[in-house]
Amino acid sequence: MPVEGRKCNLCGKPLISELELCLSCRKGEYRSFDRLWVLFPYTGKYRKLLTEYKFRKNLSLANFFAEKLLAILDEPGLQDAVLVPVPPRPGKIKENGWDQVDTLVTRLVHLKKGITVNRCLKRRKSKVQKLLTRTERLENLKGRIYIRGNPPKTTLIIDDVVTTGSTMEVCASVLKQNGAEKVYGVCLFYD
Fold this sequence. Notes:
This protein is α/β, with parallel strands linked by helices. The chain has seven helices and six strands, in the order H-E-H-H-E-H-H-E-H-E-E-H-E. The chain has one domain: Rossmann fold (3-Layer(aba) Sandwich). It is 35% helix and 18% strand. It has a four-stranded parallel β-sheet with strand order 1-6-5-2, sandwiched between helices. Strands 3-4 form a two-stranded antiparallel sheet. The chain is globular and about 45 Å long.
């Protein structure tokens, strides 16, 4: 079950105060995305879910995750959003045999008619993000995420895990620099 209760109006993580933004977002760091939704904490049984899906290729979980994401697609402002999956590292599909984010997006399209997908974001070779700090992650992706074609005016970036937010930030920034007006994001898990 997705995390219930009040969530930060910017990063989507659960709130522990009466304010509308979490402590991290209140620090005033600029974010290119307009809002982020997250479903599950990346701990305990939820961490096992992602491991089963991402590393053990339990594709039936794509249906489970896609069904949970459908509720977010009904949020105000997202009805006309075009899904933009975070692009995989070059060579990832060859190494792993698949891309879990793209599979999730494909399942969403099958579950709900009228969803539009634009795979306009591309990625040049870079280091693996999970081994880096937030500052290193931002630097690692600088100039590595780029766009092909024109981005949709309203986009919903899809990713599996948000840790520092740097991947989402770089993707949103590239989209906005190239003409997107509203950029939202959704991640299955937050760390």
